[in-house]
């Protein structure tokens, strides 16, 4: 008699995943998780050399087919080339992860240059919409097709020191909810609201070592900052058959959020 396998619905055999910003940090963890579950994976990243190196390493670790290529998701011609190469290499695309995102800290939200506000929207919001549009013909022909986005907790909470990034992520939440309703019964669309996950990106965003150390010990319900693997596990659930009844959701993965006390300790 076959033994029941509770993890069977989390397996991704037969799926082809395109992960943007997948060469390092959270994107790399997502790509590894999908490949480990059996998916074929394209890692698209601004740094093509790093994308290829990460793909080779994950392929060796998981035994799945993983390839990489350079792709600037703010440029339409590079998006189209990436989608075409993924479909050519693997025959289809069933799983899109819009993971690319970045923002710079500004102490004064009214001092952010207008052009930076526009560029933040182009990178954090418009790129995901454009990539989804390019993948649509493949997604609509796939089994269990999904679009899962890397959102941010600052897209739903006040974050005046990251005003350009937070506004763009808020726009992403709303745009992807709209797409979930547009794609109803055809493609599932969800967004993960990511809390503090310490990666080298925090230093690149302008946070000093003291701030990074404070973020490493947040006053949240779990008492720790996140790891890339924490986020990857949520993406695997949402993209796999295990999440087949979930669409149109913004799901918070943030250590439970900030601990609230009405009275001082």
Derived from helix and strand composition plus strand pairing, the structural class reads alpha/beta
Number of strands: 7
The level of helicity is: 40-55%
Q: In DSSP terms, counting alpha (H) and pi (I) runs of 4 or more, how many helices? A: 8
Span of the ends, CA to CA: 56 Å
Tell me what portion of residues adopts beta-strand conformation.
5-15%
CATH topology: Rossmann fold
**Architecture (CATH level 2) name:** 3-Layer(aba) Sandwich
Strand order of the largest sheet: 3-2-1-4-5-6-7
- Kindly report the average pLDDT value: 93
Describe the protein.
The model has no long low-confidence stretch (mean pLDDT 93). This protein has a seven-stranded parallel beta sheet with strand order 3-2-1-4-5-6-7, with helices on both faces. The protein has helices at residues 25-36, 48-62, 76-90, 114-139, 163-182, 201-204, 209-215, 228-239, and strands spanning 16-20, 40-45, 66-70, 95-98, 146-152, 188-194, 249-253. The protein has a single domain, classed as NAD(P)-binding Rossmann-like Domain (Rossmann fold, 3-Layer(aba) Sandwich), CATH 3.40.50.720. The chain has 265 residues and is of the alpha/beta class. α4 links the parallel β4 (95-98) and β5 (146-152). Pfam families: adh_short_C2.
């Amino acid at each position: 008699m076959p033994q029941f396998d509770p993890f069977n619905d989390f397996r991704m055999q037969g799926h082809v995943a395109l992960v943007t910003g997948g060469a390092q940090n959270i994107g790399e963890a997502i790509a590894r998780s999908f490949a480990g579950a059996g998916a074929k994976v394209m890692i698209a990243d601004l740094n093509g050399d790093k994308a290829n190196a990460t793909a080779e390493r994950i392929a060796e670790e998981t035994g799945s087919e993983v390839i990489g290529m350079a792709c600037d998701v703010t440029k339409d011609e590079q998006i189209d080339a990436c989608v075409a190469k993924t479909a050519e290499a693997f025959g289809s695309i069933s799983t899109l992860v819009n993971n690319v995102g970045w923002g710079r800290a500004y102490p004064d939200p009214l001092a952010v240059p207008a052009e930076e506000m526009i560029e933040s929207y182009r990178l954090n919001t418009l790129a995901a919409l454009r990539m989804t549009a390019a993948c649509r013909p493949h997604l609509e022909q796939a089994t269990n097709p999904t679009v899962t986005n890397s959102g941010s907790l600052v897209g739903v909470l006040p974050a005046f020191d990251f005003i350009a990034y937070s506004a763009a992520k808020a726009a992403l939440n709303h745009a992807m909810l709209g797409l979930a309703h547009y794609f109803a019964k055809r493609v599932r669309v969800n967004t993960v609201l990511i809390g503090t996950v310490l990666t080298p990106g925090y230093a690149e965003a302008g946070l000093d070592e003291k701030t990074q150390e404070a973020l490493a010990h947040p006053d949240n319900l779990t008492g720790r900052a996140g790891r890339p693997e924490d986020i990857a596990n949520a993406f695997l659930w949402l993209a796999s058959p295990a999440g087949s009844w979930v669409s149109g959701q913004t799901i918070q993965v943030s250590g439970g959020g900030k601990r609230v006390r009405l009275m001082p300790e």
